[in-house]
Design goal:
This protein is α+β, with helices and mostly antiparallel strands and 209 residues long. The protein has three helices and nine strands, in the order H-H-E-E-E-E-E-E-E-E-E-H. The protein is 20% helix and 38% strand. The protein starts with a helix and ends with a helix.
């Protein structure tokens, strides 16, 4: 009986010593300016209501001007190429080569990243029919619509061509009114260069006057 009481007393003494040591460690840590490590639970804090943007990048339901700092970022996940750039392009073209000159035009449809074009020129050596794919190189953060196109030139002796188009961003319609292009190709046993452009009515009047 005495032996059991001795063991129980020894265990109580050890527990009290361990508790006193832990209390002294916490107190020492607070004296040194350090808080004891305590497991805390954090809650997610969401400030404000969600913001929704329209196709022009303005906040839906806002009362501040559209050019305020509440505007959709350029790299927002809802940004789409068709909201920034036009899809239809129509240009007049002048084709000049070592053996022929021709006039014509080019029609292109580029809805998003890829599209196609169809063009035609009429010269002294006969008609030229051109067609091929178009790749839009610009992204939503770019101010200019850069496009690279390449295709075949069907004429008396067929050939191929490659060109670059620079177009203005989308304004009030899905049709681009201002664009410029340059094409390098080879057909009818000659190298040629094609210059294309489309201008708005205001730009044409400014050039005339």
């Amino acid at each position: 009986m005495k032996k059991r009481l001795f063991i129980i007393g020894l265990l109580m003494l050890l527990c009290s010593a361990a508790g006193a040591q832990t209390t002294d460690s916490v107190a020492a840590g607070r004296e040194l300016g350090r808080e004891p490590r305590v497991k805390r639970s954090y809650e997610r804090n969401v400030l404000g209501a969600p913001v929704y943007y329209d196709t022009l990048g303005n906040v839906i339901g806002q009362t501040v001007p559209a050019d305020s700092f509440y505007h959709r970022p350029k790299h927002h996940f809802r940004n789409r190429l068709e909201d920034h750039f036009s899809a239809f392009f129509l240009e007049g073209q002048l084709m000049t080569g070592s053996r022929d000159m021709a006039l014509g035009g080019q029609l292109a449809y580029v809805p998003q990243r890829w599209g196609a074009y169809l063009g035609g020129n009429v010269g002294l050596q006969g008609p030229y029919i051109k067609a091929g794919p178009v790749w839009r190189m610009s992204d939503c953060s770019n101010e200019i619509d850069w496009q690279l196109y390449a295709g075949v030139n069907i004429c008396r002796r067929p050939g191929a061509e490659i060109g670059l188009r620079m177009a203005a961003p989308r304004m009030w319609s899905n049709f681009c009114w201002t664009s410029y292009s340059m094409t390098f190709g080879y057909a009818n046993n000659m190298g040629y260069i094609t210059l294309g452009f489309s201008l708005t009515l205001s730009t044409v009047l400014a050039l005339i006057w």
